[in-house]
Amino acid sequence: MKEKGLHSNNKFNTGYNFDELIIKNPLLKEFVIKNKYDAITIDFSNPKAVKELNKALLFTFDKITVWDFPDENLCPPIPGRLDYIHHLSDVLLPEENIKVLDIGTGATCIYPLLGVAEYNWSFVASDIDLDSLDTAQDIIYDNNLESKIELRQQFDEQHILQGIIKEDDLFSAVMCNPPFYKSAEEAQGANRRKTRNLGNNAIRNFSGNNNELWYIGGEKAFLHNYLYESSLFKSKSKWFTSLVSKKENVESLEKSSKKLGAKVFKIIPMSQGNKVTRIACWHF
Q1: Domains in the chain, ordered, with CATH?
Q2: Taking Cα atoms as reference points, which of 169, 143, 151, 85 lies closest to residue 119?
Q3: Residues 57-70: pLDDT tens digits?
Q4: Fewest Cβ atoms closer than 10 Å to its Cβ: which of 42, 46, 104, 248?
């Protein structure tokens, strides 16, 4: 099974070898099926199957052997998350001793794990949810990555970088996968539509708690708040970056970046399968 449109350096862009993945995560075996085209795959509407597949993909990295988190938290698609890391590496080359700030790392701590596993970067990772940070810290301990990943809690939901960046911090880049929806109701409506499109009554295969899924004003409000706060810390990071799911949010973000004094603003397109997204990058 081949993923379309992934970065040329992405180890999953040639597809999945399920025999090898089952060796990495034996729990995947019970979810592997043959589809109507006689191809080996899983049922992507089954959240347990999706979780075990992504665990297996993550375990193909030698540095990661444990990845446990509650089912109510988002299960990130590893190939797509790895793409962000590879595109960020392209932006940062040829810099060495890279240190990245991951905003909203979540319970899975996925970007720091992938950044350490693929490039041996160092990370500071923040989140507003203490339970998520507790789970992330357990994952860090279980994989002996305390020297590479530091967690910090954001105590004020009005802020993104303020309260996280310290006076002596200096980052190569900030990265972020912002909440998409404006409210819990909007997120639940999207879940119902996705369930109908999958043609079954399964619970959503991407789960997610409140702060992972929605932010007052949605993605646009989050991005503009982040952009404004980046202008307050312009000397603290060479690059500020974020995923942008909604294409219509790019134009206003670019206009605002210029007003705030950004010297460069660029968009890196990304795709995984039929999903198209993009990374916004700016620096001062």
Answers
A1: 18-283 (3.40.50.150)
A2: 85
A3: 999 999 999 999 99
A4: 248
Cα–Cα distance, 220 to 205 (Å, whole number): 25
Buried b (16+ CB within 10 A) or exposed e, 258-278: eebebeebeebebebeeeebb
Q: Where are the beta strands (DSSP E) in 218-263?
A: 237-244
Distance CA 63, CA 147 (A): 13
**Nearest-angstrom CA–CA distance, 95 and 71:** 37
Give CA–CA dist 250/33, Å, rounded. 40
Residues 243, 228: contact at Cβ < 8 Å?
Answer: no
pLDDT of residue 2 exceeding 60, the answer is no
Q: What percent of the chain has pLDDT over 70?
A: 86
Q: How far is CA 18 from the centre of its chain?
A: 24
Q: What is the pTM of this model?
A: 0.88
